[in-house]
């Protein structure tokens, strides 16, 4: 007669909890084979070891309990091979997704470290930026903070992916005329900026590439007027003029830190050479 094993001992032998075995019993995946008629205690048999180990092996491969239960209802070698092939295909898909996620996170990490490790904060730089795509929403008539938060919610509803939502930068968009008129706190909308890997079925518009005057700064929108004023002065001083709508990219904000002095933004304004009076 095969040894009879109580649930606690069965769990200990296989490195799982008694609660797990009780759950397998409840869903009819793996039930004790024996019951003592006098005590009503239920026991597992040693011959059930292979069955439980198969369940744990498949679960360790990441298979759902529902899949495992279906497999055990009518299993043979071909059904096992088919199950494993489907799992390989699933894992390969996950590797593609995780690789993309890894690249996005590493890109974000590199971006933030670039601002933290270089002495560029509060300084004007002229740099060429390639064409990008933006998903844009107009602001309403509310204050900048409220419209920014509502805009992020709209972007989230459009993107439908928390990864895309946080791994591509947001930007407030300021009209070219407002920049030229010194109206640095009146933004016309919010955008998500894509340098590559634009999600499917997302309607974007181009943000032209070319020469940009840029300035990174730490703080919130309360500080933006000062930095915008300094940047436009540098644009004029260096013989340039504003060539289009500007962006204020949000590099880090309250989603990353509780401290406003750790919020990082970058003003980006497209520029071109100022025409001389004779041109």
Describe this structure in words.
- Helix 1 crosses helix 2 (18-26).
- It is elongated and about 95 Å long.
- The model has no long low-confidence stretch (mean pLDDT 86).
- Helix content is 43%, strand content 23%.
- The protein is built from nine helices and twelve strands.
- The protein is α+β, with helices and mostly antiparallel strands and 279 residues long.
- The longest helix has 41 residues, at 77-117.
- The N and C termini lie far apart (104 Å).
- The strands form two sheets. Strands 4, 5, 6, 7, 8, 9, 10, 11 and 12 form a nine-stranded antiparallel β-sheet that branches. A three-stranded antiparallel β-sheet has the order 1-3-2.
Write the layout of secondary structure elements.
Blueprint: E1 4-5, H1 7-14, H2 18-26, E2 34-35, E3 42-45, H3 49-60, H4 65-73, H5 77-117, E4 124-129, E5 132-138, H6 144-159, H7 162-167, E6 170-174, H8 176-180, E7 189-194, E8 205-207, E9 210-218, H9 224-237, E10 240-242, E11 246-252, E12 264-273
Antiparallel strand pairs: 1-3, 2-3, 4-9, 5-7, 5-8, 6-7, 6-11, 9-12, 10-12, 11-12
Key phrases:
single chain; 279 residues; alpha+beta; nine-stranded antiparallel beta sheet; three-stranded antiparallel beta sheet; elongated
User: What share of residues is helical?
Assistant: 40-55%
Proportion of strand residues:
15-25%
Assembly of the depicted chains:
single chain
Largest beta sheet, briefly?
9 strands, antiparallel
Annotation, overall tally of beta strands: 12
Classify the secondary structure makeup into a structural class: alpha+beta
